[in-house]
Specification:
Shape: elongated
Number of strands: 10
Number of helices: 3
Number of domains: 2
Strand content: 35-45%
Distance between the termini: 80 Å
Largest sheet: 4 strands, mixed
Helix content: 25-40%
Strand order of the largest sheet: 2-5-9-4
Radius of gyration: 27 Å
Length: 176
């Protein structure tokens, strides 16, 4: 009886290993059939325009505009700096056009007390609810899985940025 039990358990082990190998092969075959869809914004994204004014603290220091987020940084590189008397002195106005599924642009001033160090205006994105962004992207991910493709899913896309300053501040504002 003891020998029969061991043979039964050995048979079950070999059968389990065989099923494990078959499952791994099927999983690999399915995964290798997927294609890369690229960077994707969900189809239910909408376009928004926003005007944001950032007050500057020191009227003498140079101002650098940048972003730590790579897609935003490249979008800011294409921005145009305009001058207008309608913009208050010592402020920078950003007119931003973007596509989103819930994220909004955020600008903040990063100041330094040292006189020779420029102040920075940095841009990033903020979502009021990560769950809302996830649910907005969920349908796109499921549709892509049905189509046997996967991509990098983003919740925003910067379309255009126009930076407007007062003519008196034009020589000290630049994009990095």
């Amino acid at each position: 009886m003891n020998k029969r039990f061991r043979l039964t358990m050995l048979g079950l082990l070999c059968g389990g290993l065989l099923l494990l190998g078959i499952g791994t092969g099927v999983c690999f075959a399915e995964y290798s059939g997927f294609t890369y869809a690229g960077v994707r914004l969900p189809e239910n994204a909408w376009t928004e325009e926003q005007s944001i004014t950032v007050p500057l603290e020191d009227p003498q220091k140079p101002i650098r505009i940048s972003s730590y987020v790579s897609p935003l940084h490249s979008g800011l590189q294409d921005a145009v700096i305009l001058t207008s008397d309608q913009v208050e002195p010592n402020t920078v106005r950003f007119d931003v056009t973007y596509e989103t599924v819930g994220s909004t642009p955020v600008f903040w001033l990063d100041t330094y007390e040292e006189a020779d160090v420029p102040d920075w205006i940095l841009m990033s994105w903020s979502a009021s609810s990560d769950l809302a962004v996830l649910l907005a992207c969920k349908d796109q991910v499921l549709e892509d899985l049905r189509s046997r493709q996967l991509g990098d899913y983003i919740s925003y896309q910067l379309l255009e940025v126009t930076i407007t300053v007062n003519p008196g501040d034009a020589d000290r504002v630049s994009i990095e």
